[in-house]
């Protein structure tokens, strides 16, 4: 592993309000302490961001850039938020590189960032695959007491042979003395839930067939651990990810049937999603339905992003200070039979949005992209006013035949 210490000019990044963000992303602010991640997951969507560091995606788990001055820069940015009364909205820490990869135990930059979040009462969300998050339990508890933190961990399979192939390096560094199996992440989230942190089980990516085998047990374990909510998204494949994923399975030789299933699901029946491909809308629909029903059965919240009718989330913690998503507008339309632009803006103003959001929202509203293909919603334009009505008979979803 090569470690390269770099200075950053900014820590907080304000994401663009693209199609995906406007519909599904409850956050806009991100901050990455590390670029590159030694966990080495073969399905990593972030590896390609190494191009921005003039490095190859193949070196994402080997060349780690450490933003050594990130706490100082973050502190200056936080002061601006306090001075100009910018609205505080949840900051996702480490969305493209795990902030609790073992190198954190040397630098403790994540700890310093959390200390600042606590000092400035800034809401934050951490996504990690490592139990090293428990090293900062004291700070997490302080933030949780003020409803200022959410933590998500990924669990996709209890098949240890499979997970060792797809997440080859998690737990193999000196700083963690045992291999970390996915089941142990539920125990980690259990500890975090027990101190009042807002916790999320990320079934992301959902591996068709492999996750199917364990999904009920995973959700029932998550419920026993008192994890707050489940989030699910099926695996997406780029040529780069498919090559890595299929190669580790082929080399292992015990998962050949998975390769054939995926060729059919993705390359014959799948669809394009930006630069990647995913499974068909029909497949996604039935996955969301299945996960939602299991979450209901075991009494745990489910954030259904693409098919809002399956949502059972329990919004809480740092995500109280999130951006609105189409689910919020859909719920309003369902409750009231329709939603007009003024209603939508009044609703959006309950969230910590900025002017940039409102400007882009108008475009999405008028073009119909906000609700495109969404269950129960129909676009109406009368005398230059565009609004949306809700009704069971306006279901414009793809066919719902069992997949
Ligand atoms: S933990 Fe996340 S960032 Fe790190 S390799 Fe895995 S998927 Fe990529």
UniProtKB/TrEMBL annotation:
SMART domains per record: Elp3 (SM00729)
Highest taxon of the lineage: Archaea
Pfam families (alphabetical): Radical_SAM
Residues of the Radical SAM core domain: 23-276
Coiled-coil portions: none
Record-level Gene Ontology MF annotations: catalytic activity; iron-sulfur cluster binding; metal ion binding
Keywords: Iron, Iron-sulfur, Metal-binding
PANTHER family: ELP3_MIAA_NIFB-LIKE RADICAL SAM CORE DOMAIN-CONTAINING PROTEIN, SLR0285 PROTEIN
Protein name as it appears in the record: Radical SAM protein
Lineage summary: Archaea, Candidatus Altarchaeota, Candidatus Altiarchaeia, Candidatus Altarchaeales, Candidatus Altarchaeaceae
